[in-house]
Amino acid sequence: MKTDIQIAQEAVKEHISKIAAKLDIAEGDLEYYGKYKAKIEPSALAGREKEGKLILVTAITPTPAGEGKTTTTIGLADGLSIIGKKVIVALREPSLGPVFGVKGGAAGGGYAQVVPMEDINLHFTGDFHAIGAANNLLAAMLDNHIFQGNALNIDLERITWKRCVDMNDRQLRYIENGFGGPKSGVPRKDGYDITVASEVMAVLCLATSLSDLKARLSRLVVAYDKEGKPVTAGDLKAAGAMTALLKDAMKPNLVQTLEGTPALVHGGPFANIAHGCNSVVATKAALKLGDYIVTEAGFGADLGAEKFLDIKCRFADLHPAAVVVVATVRALKMHGGLAKTELGQEDLVALEKGLPNLLRHVSNIKNVYGLPTVVAVNRFPTDTDAEIELVIEKCKELGVNVRLSTVWAEGGKGGVALAEEIVRLCEEENNFRFCYDEKLPIKEKIHAVVTKVYGGKGVIYTPEAEEQIARLESLGFGNTPVCMAKTQYSFSDDQTKLGAPEDFEVTVRAVKISAGAGFVVVLTGNIMTMPGLPKVPAAENIDVDAEGNITGLF
Question: Is-catalytic flag, 69?
C-alpha cells in the first residue's frame, strides 16, 4: 500500500497558473513561489461581486482511530468538481508542532490531498515564520522598553505577552531570562507559546485588510502598568513594523488538490487553544472566486465548528449554507469503550454506546446553530453493513442523512454521493444563529457554550478566573465573543470522558483578553498553549535522501 507522501510525490501537478486560470485569475495577479504555489494579490478580487455557497466540514470528538476531516473536505471538493461545480477548498496551514509530534502531515490523505504536500507541511510560503517574527519583534520591543527606562511604568509581574516558536517544546513553557548583568536585559519570568497559539496568528486570520491588520496589532495587550491599565503594542509603537513583516503573509496561498481542484491554504490557529479556522481573507476570496467553497474547522464540532460559527462568522458576516459532520464507525466504537486494537470486529453494542457523541454534534449544528447537516461516514473495509445501517438509522431519527465516503481510496469519485447531498442542502433555507449574544456578560457566554454545545450542567471558576473576569469587564472587554481553550478529546474538560458525557461541570482556571483578535480566551482544565513532543516523535521517522526526496512525512 502506498503512503500519503508517495501518492503525493507521484502526482502529476498542473502549473499553478493553470489552477489560477480555472478561477479567472490572471498571471499578473499571482506572486509565484515556484511552479506549484502562488500568493493571490488583492487586485485579483477587484470588481468581483459573486458570493459562493459556504460549506463547513467538522467532525466528531477525535480519537486515535482517526476521523479524516481534512481528507473528507478535500474529497468533497473534488466530488463537487466531478459533478460540474466551480469549487474551491479553503484550509488551514499545518503547524510544524503536530507534523514533527504525533499527527504527522495535515494535507489530507490517500487520494484526497492538497499538493505539494511536503511544502505545505513544512515551510510552505513562510507565513508562519513571518507570524513568529512579528510576535517576537513585539516581545523584543517590550523588553527593550523596560530596559531603556520603562516610561510606560509596566509592572514586570503583569507582563502577558510571550515569545513563540512553531514547535512542540515543553522546555520553553516557563523560563526566566534577562540574566547576565545590567547590559543583558532585565531579569524576569517569561515563557513561550506555540506559534499557532500566538494572538498574532489569530489577528492575521481575522483581519480583512492591511489597515485592519495594523489596527488589530495596535490593540494587542502585552502587559499592565502598575496602576492596572493595559499596555498595548500601539503604546510601544510596534504595530507598523509588525505589519511590514506580515504584509506578504496576509495574501492567501493558492495550491491544488491531486485532481486539480483549486485550494486556498492560509493561516492555522489551533482549535483547542485558538479559534481553529483558516483566514477570513482566504474564505472571502474563495467566496468571490467560486460557486461552492468547502472549508474545515479544527478538531470536533464542539471546538472548531463552535468557534467558526460564533467567532469567525460573527466577525466576517459569513452565513454557511450547509455543514458536514465527519465520523468513522471505528472512532464511534472507541467512544463506546473499545480499545484501538479491538476495532476490526463488528460490535453493535460498542457502536451504540459511542453514537451519542456523533448525535450530540449533529444536534448542535442542526438545533443550536440552525444549519442543514449531513453526516459523512468514512468507510473502512472492516465496517459491516449492520454497523453502517445503525449509524444511518440513528441519524435519521434526528432528520439528518448519512452519506458514505471513500475519498481516501478513490479521491473525488468516492465523494460524489456526499457532494450531491451537499448541493441539495445548499438550496434549503436555513435559520443560522449564534449560540449566544456577544453583549452578554462573560460568564453567561461561557455558560451558554458549556450547556448548549458541550452538554454540561454548569461552570466552576477558580478565584483567579473570577478576578480576571471582573477586571476585564471593568476595562470594557466584556462585550466580545469567548474563545474556549479546552481538550479536544472530550465534550468536557476531562479528556478521559468519552462519548457524550452528562452532568459534568467545566472548570475555568484563567481568562485573558485577546484585544487584537477581539475575543476573550477562556482556559479550562489543564490545556496548554505550548504542547510537548511524545515519547517517540514523528520527527524520528522523517528523512531526506541525497536527491532531496523527503520520506516519512505521514
Answer: yes
